[in-house]
Specification:
Blueprint: E1 3-4, H1 7-10, H2 14-21, E2 25-30, E3 33-46, E4 73-78, E5 82-88, E6 96-103, E7 106-107, H3 109-115, E8 133-137, E9 147-150, H4 159-163, E10 168-171
């Protein structure tokens, strides 16, 4: 059975959402065709205090979706060439999101976004069929013993405490 994840799933603890996203399926509709991949790796960015988060220095035009509704996409470009796909979590006004780092055989957030044909047009739009990009629960349960928690990638700028937080979740 396929169930599209709705706002209540995303409107809770960012770390809980991150872990529970593993094994869920990200689906992209392109024209009449749908492609889908199981989510295999994610990273959590949790609130103002998280020095690795875009929100740590306050609300900007770029990071505004993080302060919005749970279940909306936060999409941005890095290095002028890679789109990053995040799903907003938690309550409105609390900046938090989960980065999709791996889906199917695509390891790395840029590769995953490219395989899904993600662009800026998804930014600040809901994760649902109408937008053409959503997440489904297809009944796969990833056991806790099959999840590895690791430090996030590329966040040394956040300082030793935040760079070492085990906010990255990987299916092993």
């Amino acid at each position: 059975m396929k169930t599209i994840l709705q706002e209540p799933f995303f409107n809770c603890s960012t770390l809980k959402v991150a872990e529970e996203l593993l094994g869920k399926v990200i689906v992209r509709r392109i024209g009449s065709r749908e492609i889908s991949f199981p989510i295999t790796e994610v990273e959590a960015y949790d609130g103002h205090a998280d020095k690795a988060s875009h929100a740590s220095k306050g609300k900007t035009l770029r990071n505004a979706p993080m302060f919005g509704e749970a279940g909306f996409w936060y999409v941005y470009l890095v290095y002028g060439m890679h789109w990053m796909l995040n799903i907003v979590t938690g309550s409105r006004g609390y900046p938090a999101a989960v980065l999709i780092r791996g889906a199917g055989d695509m390891n790395g957030p840029g590769r995953a976004a490219k395989a899904l044909n993600v662009t800026k047009r998804f930014n600040n739009r809901p994760a649902n069929r109408a937008t053409g990009l959503w997440i489904e629960d297809r009944g796969v349960v990833v056991k806790k013993s099959d999840i590895k928690r690791l430090p996030r990638v590329g966040v040394d700028y956040a300082g030793p405490v935040w760079a070492k937080r085990k906010y990255r979740f990987v299916v092993v």
